[in-house]
Amino acid sequence: MRDMFDRDKKRFDKYSLQLNDILFDYSKNRINDETVTLLLQLTNEADVPAWIEKMFVGEQINHTEHRAAMHTALRDQGNQPLIVDGANILADIREERERAKQLAENIRTKKWRGATNQAITDVVNIGIGGSCLGPLMATEALKPYALHDLNVHFISNIDENHINDTLEYLNPETTFFIISSKSFTTQETLVNAETARNWHVNELGNQEYIDRHFSAVTSNVKLAKEFGIAEENIFKIWSWVGGRYSLWSSIGLPIIIAIGSEHFDELLAGAYEVDQHFRHTPLEKNIPVLMALLGIWYNNFFEVQSMAVLPYDEHLHRFPDYLQQIDMESNGKYVDRQGYEVDYTTGPVVFGGICVEAQHAFFQLLHQGTKLVPADIPAPIYDFNSIEKHHRVLMSNVFAQTEALMRGKTEEEVYEALKAKGLGEEQIKQLVPYLIFPGNRPTSTLLFNTLNAKTLGAIIALYEHKIFVQGVIWNINSFDQWGVEFGKRLAKNILHELNDAKQIKSHDSSTNGLINHYKRQRPEQKGEK
Ligand code: F6P
Fold it and tell me: Using an 8 Å Cβ cutoff, are 24 and 379 in contact?
């Protein structure tokens, strides 16, 4: 890459694109015109443009579950009817969104009163995976736009510490729960919801209070009603939206409560602009397509196994977690659309961390490790409440780190630098090998004006579509998740085995050994409190 930059002073102009507030610089990648041409050829061979249309028009591209993948419909700003399963879903979408907005505004304006006529101060979302990570990431990212006297919390883990630590400081009279579960059968969520209801009833003493303090977001209204949620507090989502793609729906209720309806509309509008770009822009200027192709280039031609997302923005601290689910649960597949095992690698291991912390954690490996780790670098030009000195230091690291990863440091440069420091020949000779940086380590930088709702919506949609294009090229279904079912089912069986003191022999020796040790050691077995 260093040589290519030295030879072509216009490389940045050639390999960067601007979409509204976002500058996408992909010039610090191991590509040239031939690479891009061949990758675009691969895109056409995989019929990507046709698949893009299939997704937008609602074809059942999630073929194993016979479902469409219509997250784009959730933010559609047009008026063309969208027919799925014979119904115009745009009307349903907008009706449910208005209901969710109404509740959110009633809570935000303190019009909504709890059972003891108090305003709500704390909203607790109980959900996991796509029913948590998207809303959590977005509410954290848009914290500057939130009310200061209304806190939004997320409980997802079945580990009792999560719900205990959250409810410990909350007042049941001013706490409102949202039970978010597309299926309304996820064990972790239902156990947490039961515990939350018991906490509320025990503290307030009356089952009837549920109507003023509990709501649900689900595609299974019947189960939500059976749980005791009042029908007017149930918000529908649909089978044709994948959980990890659902924050645009009423799963986004915590976001609407946190930032208000107007900012939520901006989030939708940002995503919609990317949808339009994705659907109508020629492939060679199509940012999600290029993001996808860069990933394919490293994953399938350099055989790297991972990618890093390194936001230089503290408010994006939950973005890597969100991206892990949407990327790895979508493309962590080894069977193709025809049911055959693939003979190439598919979804990468996605990890990340907030910068500059990550520079003091794992950048050593990025710079001098034996593994090539392509990285995406989202960074804001200014912040909602920038302290200019801080922000400049932050941004200097964005530019310096991506340059250092690309250029590296040659033996000659190391030698000159150590000589200039006045080190003796012997000491220099001993140190030089450790101070050489191979460089040629790729990064793509997403520089955006500021992290507002519209830009966040756009960034999320860019990644949704990048992941979709990769799935199409790998000929896999990015919208099912059979891989999460097996472990869940085994856990349900083992749960029954844990309910008594009997020693277990029904598994392999490791699983038996672990269960039996656990049983022997747990306090109730040792007669301890
Ligand atoms: O992780 C498996 C999964 O099904 C995710 O796809 C989903 O987002 C999560 O569990 C929660 O599912 P639900 O919203 O149905 O509770």
Answer: no
Report the alpha-carbon distance of residue 213 to residue 193 in Å, rounded: 12
Q: By C-alpha distance, which of 325, 114, 291, 302 is closest to 215?
A: 114
131 lines ligand 1 (CB under 6 A): yes
CA–CA separation, 477 vs 455, rounded Å? 28
Output the pTM of the full model: 0.97
Bridge partners of residue 307, in order along the sequence: 350
Nearest atom, ligand 1, residue 130 CA: 8
pLDDT value at residue 528: 63
Computed on alpha carbons and rounded to an integer, the radius of gyration of the chain in Å comes to: 26
In the block, tokens 């997704």 appear at 55
> Is 200 close to ligand 1, i.e. is its CB under 6 Å away?
no
Helices (H), 286-410: 287-296, 319-324, 330-331, 363-368, 388-407
Q: Is residue 440 within 8 Å of residue 406, measured between CB atoms?
A: yes
481 residue type, one letter: Q
Answer yes or no: 519 catalytic.
no
Q: Verify whether residue 66 is a known catalytic residue.
A: no
Q: For a pocket test of ligand 1, which of 67, 131, 137, 477 has the largest count of ligand atoms closer than 8 A to its C-beta?
A: 131
Please work out whether the CB of residue 318 comes within 6 Å of at least one atom of ligand 1: no
Choose the catalytic residue: 360, 390, 429, 517.
360
230: three-class secondary structure by DSSP? coil
Q: What is the DSSP letter of 118?
A: P
- In this predicted structure, what is the pLDDT of residue 488? 87
Query: By the 8 A CB rule, do 241 and 217 touch?
Result: no
Q: Is the minimum distance from the CB of 183 to ligand 1 under 6 angstroms?
A: yes
Q: d(Cα 396, Cα 377) in Å, to the nearest integer?
A: 13
> Can you tell me the distance from the alpha carbon of 447 to that of 378, in angstroms, rounded to the nearest whole number?
6
Catalytic (active site) residue 360: yes
Q: Tell me the two tokens of residue 160.
A: 């009792």
CA–CA distance from 361 to each of 310, 350, 356, 365, 366 (Å)? 12, 16, 9, 9, 10
Listed residue (166, 213, 220, 212) closest to 190, CA to CA: 220
Query: What are the average pLDDT values for consecutive 10-residue runs of the chain, which has 529 residues?
Result: 97 98 98 98 98 96 97 95 87 96 98 96 98 98 96 98 97 97 96 96 83 97 97 97 98 98 98 98 98 98 97 98 98 98 98 97 98 98 87 97 98 97 96 98 98 98 98 98 92 93 96 97 75
HSE (side-chain half, CA atoms, 13 Å) at 89: 24
Other C-beta atoms closer than 10 Å to the C-beta of 107 total 22
